[in-house]
Specification:
Layout: H1 3-17, E1 34-39, E2 43-45, E3 49-57, E4 64-68, E5 76-77, E6 82-84, E7 94-101, E8 108-116, E9 123-127, E10 130-133, E11 138-140, E12 142-146, E13 153-157, E14 160-161, E15 163-164, E16 168-170, E17 175-177, E18 184-186, E19 192-194, E20 197-203, E21 210-217, E22 233-237, E23 241-243, E24 247-255, E25 257-261, E26 264-269, H2 271-274, E27 285-288, E28 303-311, E29 325-329, E30 374-379, E31 383-401, E32 410-422, E33 435-438, E34 444-451, E35 455-460, H3 461-468, E36 475-477, H4 507-525, E37 530-537, E38 545-552, E39 563-564, E40 567-574, E41 581-582, H5 585-592, H6 606-624, E42 629-636, E43 644-651, E44 662-663, E45 666-673, E46 685-690, H7 693-704
Parallel strand pairs: 2-8, 10-21, 37-41, 38-40, 43-45
Antiparallel strand pairs: 1-3, 3-6, 4-7, 5-6, 7-8, 9-12, 11-17, 13-14, 13-20, 15-16, 16-17, 18-19, 20-21, 22-24, 22-27, 23-24, 24-46, 25-26, 25-36, 26-29, 27-28, 28-29, 30-31, 30-33, 31-32, 31-42, 32-35, 33-34, 34-35, 37-38, 39-40, 42-43, 44-45
Length: 714
């Protein structure tokens, strides 16, 4: 054999021995590999599992890689072929499961499975599947039921048949009536943000079969408005965005109300909305809608409605005690009557509250704001919300960030004499700058600037107006006469949570309270108004247990102790209770169910307020220095309705010093929540627009085209 023949011989041997899998094993040509997928059933109920089997031929390597078409939204599958359906029926309901050969990734087999809402095979779908509905307005939904002759359904809103005041109502025919307020939730960053609603149709033939639609409540406050614009609407500084070359992040908030000084009208809002947390320049353009509500985070499509005139310094030391700014109105661009969206005394033909102006003048002085006073606000993100004043005289600290994207200077501002409103759903990100008014007279109370997932904080309007007074010219609210905010009395207007929701107390804590009660039972039962003494949860500090006094309704209880050996006490009134004497925790729970659930806020007398102010003044500074404390004010006790309490706002999850049950004879009440925040991470919303470099450059050019008006000195 010559050299060329020898080379061809060895080459033929090499080619004949080469394989797909490497190593010493030899596989048939890849064209012979086949994969088939089978399952015992062709349907699977939502949330349940089904085994798939892959049969691989043409290779000794029968391993496969499993996948689900469309990703995790269509369910998941394990490496052994166990498929788990999603918790809701996907669209489309038919899902493809694929097994790919690990010997040759070009070879695969598939099978389909239909995800059903019930084992009966009944399917329910809701149309439209998604909808955006303005506050107070209506949306018709229809349900399609297959797999049964009984096509009747029961309609739910967020799991409640017929709906609720908080989330809106739906008729048996599927007509949804939106609530006045946009629903909110707490996000992973500790902020209160808006969320969606679920409209569900449940088959009456099989209650495990249902279909769901998603509803987004969109208040008129968040829309671009025709000029002259009404207040309570979206707005921002024209420069409230950050361009990092790849992403433009923009922010915005609420153009709260209209004020006048020396015959000139100004928009009143927060510093961190109009003045970018001290980063703005007097003369900056104020636009409506805010950059957050534009398609590209630019001023394109906006109206310059005012120019920045004056703002408080948030980083001043000592604190100037307000987060506020005013911007002089551009003639013809703002409603000169000062009307605020949804704040009127009447409704239109569709049942939607008309815009209305607040009460003209200087608003309520801080000393005139009573605990338990019903209040309302109309803001960019959550629309019209209604609640009550929970605390006054609040000393607190609030976190800020200068830049819209959160990359700027972070600082904390300390405040005193603030006003608190109960309910995390009273405001959300983007509501900063809203004017808080009384529900019965629309009299201004506070300027909303910060909040947590359970509370909202505002500057007393007297402090705000006094700050902007200049040259002998006072500042007053533009408005009209006293009137009720009708939106708060409509059936679709939810009030922030009014009643206490009980939670569990650690067994050892409850045992300690029972031991203390037993030790003092004879003397506690000796009080003439006490029928029984039990144990249960304290509502002034839900993490602690309390000794429960079941007392005769209407009799004086001022002599009852607020604590016994450091254990809190709670008073429950009724003419006659079914059990007497020292009773167990179980019997205590039964007696509690025989009375109405306690309120989160009670009115407090002038005498109680005076008593609380003395204690507050003596201890507020020391308490604010304690670990985990972010605010100290005066509120009402829930454990003893009618009594004032030292309201101590703590940060959930932060290390905390123990809070005594009583300080100088005054009950303490612990209100735990996320951190009070304003600015980018908090009550001001932000949105990132991912734009290519060309558009990012256009954004910069557009911003430069916004010429600031001449500086207006206060």
């Amino acid at each position: 054999m010559n050299r060329a023949g020898l080379w061809l011989f060895f080459l033929s041997i090499i080619l004949s021995s080469s394989g797909c899998g490497g190593g010493s094993s030899t596989a048939p040509p890849s064209t012979l590999i086949t994969v088939t997928v089978t399952a015992a059933k062709t349907t699977v109920v939502v949330g349940q599992s089904l085994n798939f089997t892959a049969n691989v031929t043409g290779t000794t390597n029968t391993a496969v890689t499993w996948s689900v078409g469309g990703g995790a939204g269509n369910g998941t599958i394990t490496s052994s072929g166990v498929y788990t359906a999603p918790t809701t029926v996907p669209s489309p309901a038919k899902v493809t499961v694929t097994a790919t050969s690990q010997a040759d990734s070009t070879k695969s087999g598939s099978a389909t499975v239909t995800v059903v809402a019930s084992a009966s095979g009944i399917l329910v779908s809701v149309q439209p599947a998604t909808a955006s509905v303005s506050d107070f307005l209506k949306q018709q939904f229809t349900a399609t039921v297959t797999g049964t002759s009984n096509t009747a359904v029961t309609w739910q809103v967020n799991g409640v048949a017929g709906g609720s005041q908080k989330f809106g109502f739906i008729s048996s025919a599927g007509l949804f009536v939106a609530p006045s307020a946009v629903p909110t939730k707490s996000d992973s960053q500790g902020n209160t943000v808006t969320t969606t609603l679920a409209i569900t149709a449940v088959s009456q033939a099989d209650t495990t079969a249902s279909g769901t639609a998603t509803v987004t409540i969109v208040p008129d406050n968040a829309n671009a408005l025709p000029v002259p614009v009404e207040l309570g609407s979206t707005g921002s500084n024209a420069h409230d965005s950050i361009n990092n070359g790849k992403t433009i992040t923009c922010c915005g908030g609420t153009l709260g109300s209209l004020v006048t000084r020396g015959g000139v009208q100004y928009i009143l809002s927060d510093n961190h909305i109009l003045a970018r947390s001290d980063a703005a320049t007097v003369g900056d353009a104020i636009v409506q809608p805010g950059l957050i509500d534009t398609a590209t985070c630019t001023t394109t499509g906006t109206n310059t409605v005012a120019t920045l005139s004056q703002f408080s310094n948030l980083q001043a030391n000592p604190s100037q005690n307000i987060d506020a700014a005013i911007a002089q109105v551009v003639p013809g661009k703002v409603d000169t009557a000062g009307n605020i969206i949804y704040l009127g005394a009447s409704t239109d033909a569709n049942g939607v509250p008309v815009p209305g102006a607040p009460q003209q003048g200087t608003g309520l002085p801080a000393s005139g704001v009573a605990i338990g006073r019903p209040v309302a606000k109309s803001g960019r993100s959550t629309g019209l919300t209604c609640s009550t004043v929970e605390a006054t005289n609040i000393a607190t600290s609030v976190d800020y960030t200068v830049n819209c994207d959160g990359t700027g200077t972070k600082f904390t501002t300390n405040y005193t004499n603030q006003i608190g409103v109960i309910g995390g759903d009273f405001s959300g990100q983007g509501d900063s700058g809203s004017l808080i008014v009384t529900q019965d007279t629309a009299n201004p109370v506070a300027l909303l600037y910060a909040g947590s997932d359970t509370d909202t904080v505002g500057n007393p309007v007297a402090d705000v107006l006094n700050f902007f007074a200049s040259g002998g010219n006072n500042v007053t609210f533009v408005g009209g006469g006293a009137h009720a905010v009708v939106g708060c009395s409509l059936p679709t207007a939810p009030q922030s949570a009014k009643t206490v929701v009980p939670s569990s107390v650690a067994t050892e804590v409850l045992h300690k309270a029972a031991t203390t009660r037993d030790l003092h039972a004879p003397e506690l039962l000796a009080y003439p108004q006490v029928q029984a003494v039990g144990v249960g949860q304290s509502y002034d500090n839900p993490k602690e247990a309390a000794i429960l006094f079941f007392v005769t309704q209407g009799e004086s209880r001022t002599n009852l102790p607020a604590q016994v050996d450091g254990v809190r006490t709670r008073v429950i009134e009724q003419p006659l209770f079914a059990k007497l004497g020292a009773i167990s925790a179980e019997d205590s729970a039964v007696l509690e169910k025989s009375v109405a659930a306690p309120q989160l806020v009670y009115s407090v007398s002038d005498a109680e307020m005076a008593r609380a102010k003395v204690v507050h003044t003596a201890h507020v500074e020391a308490l604010m220095k304690q670990a985990g404390v972010q605010g100290v004010g005066i509120g009402s006790s829930v454990d003893s309705p009618g009594e004032a309490a030292l309201m101590i706002f703590t940060i959930r999850g932060a290390p905390q010093d123990p809070i005594p049950a009583v300080i100088d004879g005054l009950r303490t009440r612990v209100r735990e929540s996320t951190r009070f925040r304003a600015g980018t991470v908090g009550a001001e919303v932000q949105r990132a627009c991912k734009l290519p470099p060309a558009k990012a450059a256009a954004k910069t050019a557009a911003m430069k085209s916004v010429a600031p008006s001449p500086t207006i000195k206060p």
